[in-house]
Task: inverse folding
């Protein structure tokens, strides 16, 4: 399961990376994070999730469980 930050070095930011991954592999769900900007739902790929920084490992684990449960149903 990909997990990316919005702010990354280089020409592609995390939102663009998430969109590229989702377009190449539609079943892959992605978690996006940032400590500097909020990702509006319309900026995320379908079924993508956003978690703001700082976050706890428990929050990320719950998001992963949710994505796995959604994929299994």
Result:
């Amino acid at each position: 399961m990909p997990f990316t930050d919005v702010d990354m070095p280089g020409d592609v930011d995390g939102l663009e990376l998430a969109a590229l991954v989702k377009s190449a592999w539609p079943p892959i769900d992605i978690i996006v994070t940032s400590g500097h900007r909020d990702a509006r739902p319309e900026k995320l790929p379908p079924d993508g999730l956003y978690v703001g920084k700082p976050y706890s490992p428990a929050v990320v684990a719950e998001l992963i469980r949710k994505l796995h449960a959604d994929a299994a149903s």
